[in-house]
């Protein structure tokens, strides 16, 4: 049987070393959200219709998702600027080199942790935010004509969680080359990788425009990077339509919830069908090349 202890140790180490950004900061932000929204609801009650408790719940999940996606993007950028070179400190590299595991596998596991494990942890905080929003609804239930039943809330939460797991996975895979680029630079330049991740493309774009002799009006590299950042879907409306749910719920919520669930499933499938899969796979190949180069440089030129 394969011994996975070294691999699990690397993943656990990465999580523990970044527990501040993964657990402490989100916990503080979630508590602040709960306190502030609860106080706002108690001090400034507003009239609502029977459907608003469910709308509030879904809105809280969506707002939390947007916030934590932005938080994750920023956190991962700084994580990759440090992850591939941080173990040079305090003879940490000597410890990893003593394990029966290659540099390529170590860096691949670090990249896997940042690309998949960290976003899943953030999804957990999105769910926590939605649960807190539900309790906010309970605290302010006197302002609603009807309260969202727990079973409807749980079913909605499960459906939304599955949907956003798909979004997180696809998004992580799509933007993997950018993070791998930062990680590659960190092997060579350590903390300077943060600045160089932007400076190098900008310099290359300027050089390209100089030799184009068109008055700095066009750049294939700039167009490519811009499209790579924004053109994840074949149709721009594919991801916009995901927001168009039917929020009209009866008091029991069951029949309309079934319609909501079917709509969400259809929108998730539509989103997947419109992903630029060829570009995504190409980006993963580029990410693999960056990680391989990082591992080879680390193995040949960095002794700890």
Short description:
With 304 residues, the chain is mainly alpha-helical.
List the helices and strands and how they pair.
Layout: H1 5-17, H2 19-43, H3 52-83, H4 92-97, H5 103-139, H6 150-174, H7 176-189, H8 193-212, H9 220-230, H10 237-240, H11 254-273, H12 277-301
Helix pairs in contact: 1-5, 2-5, 3-5, 3-6, 3-7, 5-6, 5-12, 6-11, 7-8, 7-12
Characterize the structure shown.
The structure is a single chain. By secondary structure, this protein is mainly α. It has one domain. Helices cover 76% and strands 0% of the residues. The protein has helices spanning 5-17, 19-43, 52-83, 92-97, 103-139, 150-174, 176-189, 193-212, 220-230, 237-240, 254-273, 277-301. Mean pLDDT is 79; it is low at 241-254.
Q: State the domain count.
A: 1
β-sheet strand percentage: under 5%
Main sheet overview = none
> Stretches where pLDDT falls below 50 for ≥5 residues?
241-254
Report the principal-axis shape. globular
- What count of helical segments does DSSP give? 12
DSSP helix fraction: over 70%
Give the helix/strand class.
mainly alpha
Rounded mean pLDDT is: 79
Order of helices and strands: HHHHHHHHHHHH
Radius of gyration over C-alpha positions, nearest whole angstrom: 23 Å
Question: What's the total number of strands?
Answer: 0
**Alpha-carbon distance between the two ends:** 31 Å
Q: Which tags fit this structure?
A:
mainly alpha, 304 residues, globular, 12 helices
């Amino acid at each position: 049987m394969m011994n996975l202890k070294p691999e699990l140790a690397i993943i656990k180490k990465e999580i523990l070393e970044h527990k501040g950004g993964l657990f402490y900061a989100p916990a503080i932000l979630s508590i602040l959200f709960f306190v502030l929204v609860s106080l706002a609801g108690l001090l400034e009650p507003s009239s609502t219709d029977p459907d608003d408790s469910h709308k509030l719940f879904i809105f809280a999940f969506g707002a939390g998702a947007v916030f934590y996606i932005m938080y994750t993007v920023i956190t991962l950028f700084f994580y990759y600027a440090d992850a591939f070179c941080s173990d040079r400190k305090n003879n940490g590299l000597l410890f990893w080199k003593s394990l029966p595991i290659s540099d390529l596998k170590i860096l691949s596991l670090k990249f896997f942790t940042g690309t998949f494990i960290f976003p899943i942890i953030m999804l957990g905080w999105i769910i926590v935010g939605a649960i807190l929003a539900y309790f906010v609804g309970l605290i302010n239930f006197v302002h609603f004509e009807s309260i969202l039943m727990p079973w409807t809330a749980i079913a909605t939460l499960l459906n939304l969680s599955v949907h956003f797991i798909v979004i997180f996975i696809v998004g992580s895979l799509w933007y993997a080359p950018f993070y791998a680029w930062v990680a590659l630079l960190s092997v060579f330049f350590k903390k300077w990788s943060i600045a160089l991740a932007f400076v190098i493309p900008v310099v290359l774009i300027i050089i390209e425009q100089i030799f184009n002799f068109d008055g700095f009006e066009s750049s294939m590299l700039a167009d490519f990077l811009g499209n790579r950042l924004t053109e994840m879907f074949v149709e721009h409306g594919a991801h916009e339509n995901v927001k168009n749910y039917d929020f009209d719920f009866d008091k029991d919520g069951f029949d309309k919830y079934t319609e909501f669930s079917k709509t969400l499933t259809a929108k998730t499938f539509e989103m997947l069908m419109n992903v630029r899969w060829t570009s995504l796979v190409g980006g993963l190949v580029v990410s693999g090349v960056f990680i391989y180069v990082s591992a080879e440089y680390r193995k040949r030129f960095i002794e700890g």
